[in-house]
Amino acid sequence: MAPDWSSIPVDLLRLVANKAHSLEDYVHFGAVCWSWYHAATSTKNNNLKSLFPWVMLADRENNDSHGFYSLSSNKVYEFDLPEIVGKRCWGSPFGWLVIAGIDNMEIQLFNPLSRASISLPSQTSFMGDENENSIMHYWSVNKVVISSNPPCMVMAIYSCYRKLAFVKPGDHVWSKIRLDNTIGTGFSDITYFNGDFFIAKCTGQLLVCDFSGIDPVAIEFAPSPLGVADEARYLLYLVDLGGELCMVFRYSDVIETINNISMKTRSFEVYKLDMNTKTWKQMDSLGDWSLFVGNNYTFSVRDFGYTDCRSSCIYFTHDYCQCSDQISGNDTGIYNYEGGEIHALPVSQDLYSVLRPPLWITPQLF
C-alpha cells in the first residue's frame, strides 16, 4: 500500500519544514499536497524569516522582465514585473520591495512574487519645503527601510541634505523627524532593532528615534566608534547581527579613467555596540553569520551549510550616489571578513544600472 503523505501530523511537518532555508525548498515541500503547503506557510514556521536571500539584478532598458539570482540554487529566475518599470527600488529581508515612482512621486511596498502592493503617502508630503526642481525630486529619496512585514512603520532618508521622515499604518502623509539642536542632518543608514529605529550619521554617530512625545525626535544614543580610519571614502551601514547592534564601514578606492570615475570596495570593518556602556568594539570575525549590504535594508543571515553561501562574509552590491552620471562601475562581490579577500558574485548578468542597481531581498511567497 502506498503511504498517505497527507496524513502526517502537522506538527511533524512543521519540524521538517523548519529544516529548509531556501525558497526553492519551501516551494517543493509545499507542492506535495495541501497539508504540506499549510505546514510550510504556517505563521508558526519561524524559518520563513531566515530564507537565504536573492539578488535582484540590475534594471534592463526597455524590458519588463527582471532577473533574481538565488545564491542557494545558483540559478536566475525571471519574472515579468511591469509594476516596477521606471521606478527606483530598495530591498528588504521581509520579501517586500519599496518602490518610488519618478513621475507621479508615489511610494509603494511591493512583493515581486505574490504581486501584492501597499500604497504609502506620496513623496510630495515630505518634499514640500525642498527644491521643486524635477531633477532634485528624481533623487529625493536616498533610502527607505521597513520595520517588519506589513503593516509596519516605514522610515526614509530623503533630500540632498539627508533628512528623516516616517509613516506608520494609517498615516496619509509622511511625518518629519525633529532633531536635537546639537545634531545636524546627514544620515547614512537606518535599522529597526529591539523595537526602536536606530539611525547612523555619515560621521558614525548613532541616534535613536524617540516616539514618546507629540513629535518624534532623533536623539544621540552613542558616539562614533573609536579607531575608524580617517578618510572620506566610506559607506556606513547598521545591522542586527544575531541580536547585536553593529555598525559596518565599507571602504572604497576611486578608479579614474578618461571616460568615467568608478568606485571599488577595498575592505570592511564591523563594530559591535555594548548597549550598556555605549561603546563599540571592532569584531575580528562574523562567526557563522553573513551580512548583506547595498541598496537595501541591511541584514544578516546565519550560515545553514549551503555550499555556495559563505559564513563570516559580507555580500555587497553597488551602492554609490546614482545621481552622478560620472560614477559608474560594477562594485559587487563577496568580502571574506577574516581573510580580507574579495570574490566575485557567481552571476554573469550585468550588475550595473543608473536607475536601479542590484539589491538584496529575502523572497517571501505571501
UniProtKB/TrEMBL annotation:
Residues in KIB1-4 beta-propeller domain copies: 68-336
Pfam families associated with the record: Beta-prop_KIB1-4 (PF03478)
Identification of the protein by name: KIB1-4 beta-propeller domain-containing protein
Organism: Lithocarpus litseifolius
Phylogenetic classification of the source organism: Eukaryota, Viridiplantae, Streptophyta, Embryophyta, Tracheophyta
